[in-house]
Each structure stands twice: as C-alpha cells, then as structure tokens.
Amino acid sequence: MTTLDTSAFETPGRGRGLLDVFRYRYLLRLLIGKTTSLRYRNSALGWFWSYVRPTVQFLVYYLIVGQVMGMHRNVESFPLYLFSGIVVVNLFNEAFGAATGSIVSNKALVRKIYLPRELFPIAAIVGAFIHFLPQLAILLVVSTLVFGYIPSIASIGLVIGALALVLGFIMGIGLFFSAINVRYRDASNVVEIIRTIATWSSPILYTWIMVYDITENVRWLFNLYMANPITVAVEMFHHAFWEPAVSATDRHGWPPDMVWHVASAVGIAVFALIVGQYVFRRSERTFAQDL
C-alpha cells in the first residue's frame, strides 16, 4: 500500500488568522495597491481629493461651531484644536467603513480562490491610513508654520501611540463587522450610525472639561466616555499638536485619572481585536456561499 506524504499540503480554510497576513505579504501589497489605485480612478483631481474633503469639513465645523457657536472664544487657537481632533476621527471613520465592506467588494476573489480572508479588511485599513497621511501632513505644516509648533520626542510618541490605539481598535471592529456584513447587509447601516456617533462622542467640537462639568454627579459616565479609544487618541493628538502651541494658562491638561483611561481604552481595543478575530474565523467558512 502506497502512503502519500501530505505534510507539504495545507487544508483549505484552516489558517492562522492574522498571523497568515505576514506569510502573504506580497498579496497584501497587491491588495493595498488595488485599493489605492481604484480609489480615484477616472477622477480629474485624483489624490487632490484627499486634501479637499478634510479641508471643507474643517471649514464647515470651524464656521458653525467656532464662529456661530463661539467656541473660538473658549478655546485658544481653536482651528488647531479642531483640526488635530478631526484627523483622528476621519481616520477612524474612513478605515472602519472601508474594512466593513472589504469582503463584499472583493467577492469575486473570495469565491474563486483561497487566501487568508483577513487580507481584505487589513488592506482596506492600510489603504485608508495611506489616504490619512496627507491630512497628517497638512496638520504638521499648518501647526509648524502658523502656530510655531516644534515637534518633540514626547509629541512624536503621543502621535505614534494614538495611531496604534486607533488602528488596533479599527482592526478589531473592522474584522467583526466585515464578517457580519457578508451575511447581514444591515451591518453597513449600523456602521454608519457608529461613524456618526464617533464624530460627536470625542472632544473635537467641544472640550473634555465640558463633559467633566456636566457629569459631576455621574462621574462613572465621564469614565465611560473617556474609555473610548477614539476619545483617548483625540486627546493624545491634542497634547501632541495643540497644547504646545498655546500658553500654559490656556492648556486643558490631561483629564483626571488619564492613566486609567488609557489602560481602559487599550483593554477595549485588545478585546475588540480578540472578539473580531474570533467572529471572523467562525464566519469565514461560509463567505463563499453567502456571497
């Protein structure tokens, strides 16, 4: 009886989850290139839209919230405060939305060949991050030339930490909703609601001090508010870009118990990543059939 050595073969669909992404780095680069090249295909302005959209969004918020509602009188250098928070929320909203629809938008590949399905949401997140970089560049240039910002090791560390926190959180919930969205397209509507909430549940159009004052008798609600990874990341960006540009008397400082808030946000991001990967692995078995 002839014995067939199957050690060189792999059982389809039995991968190692996110760890397989490192084995398929070449495919990941191809998917990222596809994502970025198709984004502005047949567009007259192309990559210029990456600058136009956040600029228009900033101007609308600044005119309505800053001028009409008078926030520029309460926050020194309010344009810098506003924009340094908007870029974080924009990264979250764009990457989260792209990751959610990544499996469905690549259904032709999912149905025809086997490859780690995690490649699709991760490629979508990386693609969104690439399109976030022009916004970060604008923030850096404006804060340096207009407000006299000088980068420091601490500010660079805060930016890196904030981006790592946001991207880790996005990866977790992106895996979760991209898997759910394959079978239940209602997930995309839930994601839109979450993206809307994210814009208003972080201190970009107001300050954390306002939230702290109105939650004086329900302090647990403020702690819950500050446990949001996006809120923590926004505050880290404020301390990296805005606080060094204003006088010491006008700085807001860190919220009380910020260390615990950061720890909570990191814990939520890690929990989201674990749950997202688990749900994704359980759901990917039927992706081809559901699509």
UniProtKB/TrEMBL annotation:
Q: Does the keyword Amino-acid biosynthesis apply?
A: no
Query: Is Transport a UniProt keyword of this protein?
Result: yes
Question: What keywords are assigned to this protein?
Answer: Cell inner membrane, Cell membrane, Membrane, Transmembrane, Transmembrane helix, Transport
Q: How does it sit in the membrane?
A: Multi-pass membrane protein
Residue limits of the ABC transmembrane type-2 domain? Answer: 45-283
Q: Which Pfam families match?
A: ABC2_membrane
Q: Which InterPro entries match?
A: ABC2_TM (IPR013525), ABC2_TM_bact-type (IPR047817)
Its subcellular locations are: Cell inner membrane; Cell membrane
Bilayer-crossing residues are: 44-66, 78-99, 119-150, 156-181, 193-212, 258-280
Record-linked PROSITE patterns:
ABC_TM2
Family stated for the protein in its record: Belongs to the ABC-2 integral membrane protein family.
- Write down the PANTHER family for this protein, in alphabetical order: INNER MEMBRANE TRANSPORT PERMEASE, TRANSPORT PERMEASE PROTEIN
This protein's name: Transport permease protein
Q: What is the lineage of its organism?
A: Bacteria, Bacillati, Actinomycetota, Actinomycetes, Micrococcales
